[in-house]
Amino acid sequence: MKNRVIIALAFLISTLTFAQKKELKAVEKAIKSNNYSEAKAGLNQVESMLSGLDSKTKSQYYLLKAQSFYANGAGSNADIDTALESLSQVTEGYQPEVAELKQNMVSNLLTKGNTAYEKKEYAIASNDFEHAYRASEKDTVYLYYAAATAVNLQDYDRALNLYKELKNLGYTGVEKQFYATNVETNEEEYFQNKSMRDLSVKAKTHIKPEDRMSESKKSEIVKNIALIYVSKDDNDNALAAMQEARAESPDDINLLLSEANIYYKMGNTEEFKNLLQLATTKDPENAELQYNLGVIASESDHPEDAMGYYKKAIELDPNYINAYINSAALVLNKEQALIEEMNGLGTSKKDDLRYDELRKMRQEVYKDAIPYLVKAIEIDPKNISAVKTLHNIYGVTGEKDKHDALQKILDELEAEGN
After folding, report:
1. Torsions phi, psi of 34, nearest 5?
2. How confident is the model at residue 329 (pLDDT cuts 50, 70, 90)?
3. Which of 44, 128, 302, 409 has a Cα at 20 to 30 A from 134?
4. pLDDT at 19
5. Which residues, including other chains, have CB under 8 Å from residue 234's CB and lie 6 or more apart?
C-alpha cells in the first residue's frame, strides 16, 4: 500500500513538472513573437509552483522572466530592475544566453542614455547609465556617468548615493588612452582603442603614436561628495568629506574656500579666517580668488576685509567688472544706517543740524561709489544694473547732465531688452 502511495506521488510530481515545462515553452514562444504580456501571464502560472522545479528549470524560468520584463528594451525602469534581479537568480546553465541578454541590455541602455543626455533629459539618462552598470558591473564607468548626470539634474540625494558607491568600490577611472597625430591636419587625435590607432599608423594617415594614462577621478568623486553635503547643510559630514577631499587635492582653492564657508556657517570664525589666509598664500596672484574672498568676507559681515580683497582683485585684473560692482555695493551699504538715523530724528534745532550732517555724509557715500560704477560701465556699457544705479545716484546728487545722458542709455538698454 505504501509503495502505491509513493508511486502515485511521484507520478503527480512528474506530471506537474511536465506541465510547468510545457508552460515555459509557451512563454519562450511568446517572447520570440515579442508578445511580452502573454509571456508574463504564462510566467505567473508557473510562479506558484516554482518551489517544485529542479534548479535548471528554475534558471530557465528566471531567464525567461528577465527577457519578458526587459522586453527587448521597451521595459520601464522598474521592469529593468526586475529583469536584472531575475538574471542574478540564473544559477545553472544558460550562461551564454545570460551574457547575450546583458550585452544587449548594456548596448541598448547606453544608446538610450546618450540620446536622453543630448536632449538634456538627465533623469532618464542617469537611470539608463545606472542600469547599464547593473547589467555589467565590470564597467564601473557607467556608474560614474549616472552619478555625474544626477548632479546635472540637481538630484543630489541620488548623486550622493552613487558617488559613495563609487568611492567604496575604489573607482578611479584611470585607463590607458591612445593617441596619434593626423598627418593631414597635424593635430593629435584620440582613438577608442589601441587596434584602431595602430591601424591608422600602419595606413600612414597618422604618426607619433603615444599611450597615456588618464587622470584619476578619485579626487573629483570625493570633492563632489563633500560639496553635496555642503548643499544639504549637513555640516559635520561636509567637513569630514571636505578634509578627505583636500587630502586628495591639496591645491584645490575652491575646496579650501568651501571648507571655510562651512566653518563660517558653524560660527567658527577663527578657523574661517585661518583658511582664508591660507588661500591667499597658495595663490596670491589669482584675481578670481581675491574676488571670491571678498564675497565671502562681505557675506560674513567683514566689509573692510572685503574691500581689501576687491581692490586686490582689481589690481591684479583691472577689467574685473564684478569687483567694481561689489565695491560700489559695499560703499552704498553705508547709506542704510544713515537713512535709519535720519528717519529717527525729531524736529528740534539739534536734530535739524544732525540731519544736515547726515545728508552730507550720504552725499559723500554716493560720491565714493561713483568711480566704481563709472569704471564698470566703461568695461560693460550694457550692464543695466550698473547703469540704473549710477543713474539714480546722479539724480540724488543733482548732476542733471550726467543723469539725463544715462537716461538715454537706460532707455536704449530697456528697449533692447524688450
Report:
1. 60, 25
2. very high
3. 44
4. 55
5. none
Q: Which amino acid is at 106?
A: V
Task: Give dist(CA 327, CA 334) in Å, integer.
Answer: 12
Alpha helices in 317-381 (DSSP H): 321-332, 334-343, 349-379
Assess contact for 105 and 68: CB atoms under 8 A: no
Matching CATH number, 319-418, of 1.10.287, 1.25.40, 2.60.40, 3.40.50: 1.25.40
CA 376, CA 354: separation in Å to the nearest integer?
Answer: 34
Answer CATH for 2-155 from 1.25.40, 2.60.120, 1.10.10, 2.60.40: 1.25.40
Asked if residues 276 and 299 have their Cβ atoms less than 8 Å apart, the reply is no
Angle at the Cα of 378 from the Cα atoms of 375 and 383, rounded to 5 degrees: 95
The pTM of the full predicted model, rounded to 2 decimals, is 0.64
Beta strands 176-182 and 188-191, pairing class: antiparallel
- Report percent pLDDT > 90 for the chain: 34
Q: Which residue has the higher pLDDT, 10 or 392?
A: 392
**pLDDT tens profile 139-155:** 999 999 999 999 999 99
